[in-house]
Amino acid sequence: MEEGARSCLLQSRSSLEQDIRASYLMDHMISDGVLTGDEEDRIRSKPTRKEQAAALLELLLRKDNHAYISFYNALVRESYGDLASLLHNSLPLVSPEAEKSFSDGGTRYVQAVLSEGGVPQRPVVFVSRPALMNRVREKLYHLQKEPGWVTVFGMAGSGKSVLAAEAVRDHALITECFPGGVHWLSVGQLDRSDLLVRIQSLCFRLEQQSQEKDPSSSLHRPPGSLEEAKERLRFLMLRRYPRSLLILDDIWDSSVLKAFDIQCRVLLTTRDRSLADCVSGSKSEVAVESGLEEDQALEILALYVNGKPQRLPEQARSIVRECKGSPLVVSLIGALLREFPDRWAYYLHTLQQKKFKRIRKSSSYDYDALDQAMAASIQVLSEEHRERYIDLTVLEKDVKVPAKVLSVLWDLEPEEVEDVLQDFVNKSLLFRDCHHRPYLYYLHDLQLDFLAEMNRSGLESLHTKVVRQYQQRYSQGPPTSGDEECLYWFRFLTYHMAKELCSLMFSLDWVRTKAQIMGPAHLINDYVEYGAILDKEVRGQFQEFLSLNGHQLEQRPFPDVVQLALSQPDSSEVYRQALLQAQERATRGGLYLDWVNKSSLKSLSRLVVQPHQGSIYSACFSHDGTKIASCGSSKTLRVFKSTSGEKMLEIQAHDDEVLCCAFSPDDRLLATCSSDRKVKVWNVERGTLMRVFEDEHEEQVNHCQFTNTRRRLLLATCSNDKFMNTKLWNINKPSSQNTMFGHLEPVNHCCFSPDDAYLSTSSSDGTLKLWEVSSANEWKSIDVADMFSEQREQTEVMVKCSTWSAGGRTIICAARNAVFLWDIETSKKMADCSGHLSWVHGVQFSPDGSLLLSCSDDQTVRVWETKKVHTSSAVCLKRDSDVLFNNGDITVVAADNRNRLQVRNGRTGAVMFQSENQESRIRCTAICSQTSAVPSGTSLATLQGHTRTVLHCQFTPEGHTLITSSEDTTIRVWRWRTGECVVLEGHKEQVRCFSLLTTTPSSETHLLSWSFDGTIKVWDMSSGERLQDLVCHQGAVLACDVSPDGQLFATTSADKTAKVWSSASWECVRLLTGHQDCVRSCRFSWDGRRLATGDDNGEIRLWNVKDGTLLKICSRDNKDAMDSLHGGWVTDLHFSPDNTVLLSTGGYIKWWNVEKGEALQTFYPTGANLKRIHVSPDFSTFVTIDNIGILYILKKVE
């Protein structure tokens, strides 16, 4: 900085520190590029206004001439005219940096003139728009001989101010046309008092500059009224600055502009092109296009990130196209990218999602965010016009409409509509295509996006209004004129009707209400029936949500639809709506959980239906693929649509469980068989019984199947009979036609090959046999049990069912709860699909082979996409897991189904480490709380000593000791680094778990162990000494928990009781009775006042620890369709830190209000039988794994 300028700053320092508000000035200085965001933050961190001012001046003294000029201009713009006058005489002519800035035509003289006049310096990031700039200069040259007005107008953020400042940065223009100078005044939205202050500041500046040139002239007192200010300004502009240019930036109101109607030369920038109509004199105007050319916009982004346009990521081009080159948006995003250069995708997504509030201020622009800039234009409209402008939300992007269309919408004459639209056009809120007659009107994409976001809740009613107004105008018939209006209705009326329908059908509120009253099948059917006129992507998202959760929506009490929807993919509209509702309800105390790692999972099921109460033993497609029939323990036969699950027919079919159903080749008949040993044939259309076969099978009939062709209609049945267990029937004859001999155990399933030449039978003897239909001779036998060697070691493998693919080369088998696809020729497994929670009883391909159907004891029918199943080989986790919560990080460790150890990131579910396959099954895992690094796979120690399976392991808090318990009835305490071991022996049966017991903070930690032998034992871990041996229960001890203060511990047992024990006297102080089943789990509250216990019937009881009284029973009145109150055993319990909420796991996860005993929320996992849940210390994150190996990381919605 020049010495004169520095001295002037130092001399004026005390006055400046006393008066200025640094925060007002810094925005301008950041825009000029002389101040960085970090410097601004440091100054703003000062506690008082005066300290902020001092810090700004101290920083300014270390900068150059450019900074001094920027500071001076900021004072002028913020109406510190008296302070600016202190610095004026020492203004440097130019700085080396400024010299470079003006290399395109500016000179030292130009810079001095513009600096004196307060014209903003060129932005740090600047791209020239020569065509526009030349048009403005051309208009300014017209003011050379006489006063007049040049209006530069355009929509918000189109770059009008930068263009105006750049246009006068020309030596020839100033010397020839405006030798008296160029004077800049930022106006904006002002009331009369603020306007007076602005004109006073301008007059003061002009008088001061005049006095410097002519010392004989004197300064006047500030004008006291607008009229006086207008006259003073007229005198100055006509007498002292007769050939000067006054630039009025950002004019909003004609009453403001009239204050400057003083017969001088004026350049004004505005959003309203009609403002100049209110003033006298010659007028010309320049329209500023709403967007930059793509190359110009990319150049701006490149300058912000210090790169080259051709090297920008692909998202850069997408950002420019999304905002259609809006200079404001490009500049705002560019400035944000300068601070966060890796956020290209984030800011593109923000634009696409219309989250304008996130595109926030990082320069001296007048509005804090893009949405405020756009809203300001709308606010200046009259209330009536504002409402009509919001109605334009219904327009589609890039569609131009004639005024007559809007005359229908607003019920006005076309001429009245044109007057309204002209006002919008004048204010740059609407664009007009003048190449057509009549004129066509359209909105910029940003304007339309902003309106849509602002009016999201009212969009449905607007589209409804369009449709109703059209129906009212054209009640006698559609328009036939063939003009633009007529063509619009024929092209877009269906769009408005579809939008009206979409806003209804794509609403979670509608889904909740209709599903509760009508059931989910009717909803799914709506999406199928009206699919052609609905948005394909969003329709698919809602249909998938209902298809996969329909069985939950059949439950009573009715589940929370918002919580169910939070399990949908993050990109889904279903999830977006659910998250907004959850966040809003969370502010009112609601509890919702977001499944944060769900993106790593893909559901293979296409439809899940719960057509019966109880197990479903059979389900089959009709041959045309439009219907599905199902039957089960409810003794009923049900037919429903395959697309939606909507019920078409229901029959009370048998006196006992209905084990199978099958369609005839023409879909007119349905056969059923039952535990009552009968086979029945039904007319599908009428629902009437046609024939009964009841004499030949002596045991229950497990399966029935028609031939696939009508050429020779036969029905095959198989049963639990010892020898004559497979039969063929002609339905027109009373007795069987043939019997197959070969299986010595019950035959569970039979199925014809596609050409009806062979019949396959699946038996409990572990074999699959193929028979020739014509001769009833055995053709081939496959020992399926050999393919399930692991399961066979544990229990006999029964082949439950099989079915052929359309080509006859593939066969499906079901065993236990899994479905397997096998290649007949190679006998190799092609794929498997997990999802059912219990035994699978039936599988079948759809007629075209694209879908696969399965039914199960879990009460569901699942429809799978065959292609997806064929390509799936998903890795699933075992339920024995451990989780470490550490300073916001979450680490999950568990074994997978391929016997590998996995460590996963608990925020994303991503695999951080995966071991090699282990020889022995990994049964339990533990992670040390002292760990600091991601596991490398290096084995640190192998500890040998247990003789049977290790059931549980746990590190002590300091991490030096590992404790393990085993089926061999022992507990071992290891110094794992050295291999030293203390063996704790005394239990007579397996030790499934243990706990550390510390009665006081200073006392030694003991070990508390429990076993199926009904005892609790207390150990000294150092010596191995058994300190206490308590016979607690008559049955196995299933759980134990130590109170937070260590003074008590609780035990639960298979004898249906729970007990509370004193760790001082080792005596039972409370016996808790009342559970009707094994008490599986228990947990003390953090204040030690309550104890929660859960049993195998799903019931949870809350007890008063002090006196043993029962406080509440959870779930008593909420029994669902499952046999258990909780969808399974209650396996784990946790209290929140404030003891107001209880978390429980079973078949699903529930959160309870402790005081009322009422459910606050339920999360339904894909699988079931949750074994344990890990809870973060702040009770905001929950981690568990279900029985089919899916990891759930649930985060409380806030």
UniProtKB/TrEMBL annotation:
<feature type="domain" description="CARD">
    <location>
        <begin position="1"/>
        <end position="90"/>
    </location>
</feature>
<dbReference type="InterPro" id="IPR019775">
    <property type="entry name" value="WD40_repeat_CS"/>
</dbReference>
<dbReference type="InterPro" id="IPR042197">
    <property type="entry name" value="Apaf_helical"/>
</dbReference>
<dbReference type="Pfam" id="PF21296">
    <property type="entry name" value="WHD_APAF1"/>
</dbReference>
<dbReference type="InterPro" id="IPR036388">
    <property type="entry name" value="WH-like_DNA-bd_sf"/>
</dbReference>
<feature type="repeat" description="WD">
    <location>
        <begin position="833"/>
        <end position="874"/>
    </location>
</feature>
<keyword id="KW-0067">ATP-binding</keyword>
<dbReference type="InterPro" id="IPR001680">
    <property type="entry name" value="WD40_rpt"/>
</dbReference>
<dbReference type="InterPro" id="IPR020472">
    <property type="entry name" value="WD40_PAC1"/>
</dbReference>
<dbReference type="Pfam" id="PF00619">
    <property type="entry name" value="CARD"/>
</dbReference>
<dbReference type="InterPro" id="IPR036322">
    <property type="entry name" value="WD40_repeat_dom_sf"/>
</dbReference>
<keyword id="KW-0053">Apoptosis</keyword>
<feature type="repeat" description="WD">
    <location>
        <begin position="943"/>
        <end position="984"/>
    </location>
</feature>
<feature type="repeat" description="WD">
    <location>
        <begin position="984"/>
        <end position="1029"/>
    </location>
</feature>
<feature type="repeat" description="WD">
    <location>
        <begin position="740"/>
        <end position="781"/>
    </location>
</feature>
<dbReference type="Pfam" id="PF00400">
    <property type="entry name" value="WD40"/>
</dbReference>
<keyword id="KW-0963">Cytoplasm</keyword>
<dbReference type="InterPro" id="IPR015943">
    <property type="entry name" value="WD40/YVTN_repeat-like_dom_sf"/>
</dbReference>
<dbReference type="GO" id="GO:0005524">
    <property type="term" value="F:ATP binding"/>
</dbReference>
<dbReference type="InterPro" id="IPR011029">
    <property type="entry name" value="DEATH-like_dom_sf"/>
</dbReference>
<dbReference type="InterPro" id="IPR048975">
    <property type="entry name" value="WHD_APAF1"/>
</dbReference>
<dbReference type="InterPro" id="IPR002182">
    <property type="entry name" value="NB-ARC"/>
</dbReference>
<keyword id="KW-0853">WD repeat</keyword>
<dbReference type="Pfam" id="PF00931">
    <property type="entry name" value="NB-ARC"/>
</dbReference>
<dbReference type="InterPro" id="IPR017251">
    <property type="entry name" value="Apaf-1"/>
</dbReference>
<dbReference type="Pfam" id="PF17908">
    <property type="entry name" value="APAF1_C"/>
</dbReference>
<dbReference type="GO" id="GO:0043531">
    <property type="term" value="F:ADP binding"/>
</dbReference>
<dbReference type="GO" id="GO:0042981">
    <property type="term" value="P:regulation of apoptotic process"/>
</dbReference>
<dbReference type="InterPro" id="IPR041452">
    <property type="entry name" value="APAF1_C"/>
</dbReference>
<dbReference type="GO" id="GO:0097190">
    <property type="term" value="P:apoptotic signaling pathway"/>
</dbReference>
<feature type="repeat" description="WD">
    <location>
        <begin position="651"/>
        <end position="692"/>
    </location>
</feature>
<feature type="repeat" description="WD">
    <location>
        <begin position="1072"/>
        <end position="1113"/>
    </location>
</feature>
<dbReference type="GO" id="GO:0043293">
    <property type="term" value="C:apoptosome"/>
</dbReference>
<protein>
    <recommendedName>
        <fullName>Apoptotic protease-activating factor 1</fullName>
    </recommendedName>
</protein>
<feature type="repeat" description="WD">
    <location>
        <begin position="1030"/>
        <end position="1071"/>
    </location>
</feature>
<keyword id="KW-0547">Nucleotide-binding</keyword>
<dbReference type="InterPro" id="IPR001315">
    <property type="entry name" value="CARD"/>
</dbReference>
<keyword id="KW-0677">Repeat</keyword>
<dbReference type="InterPro" id="IPR027417">
    <property type="entry name" value="P-loop_NTPase"/>
</dbReference>
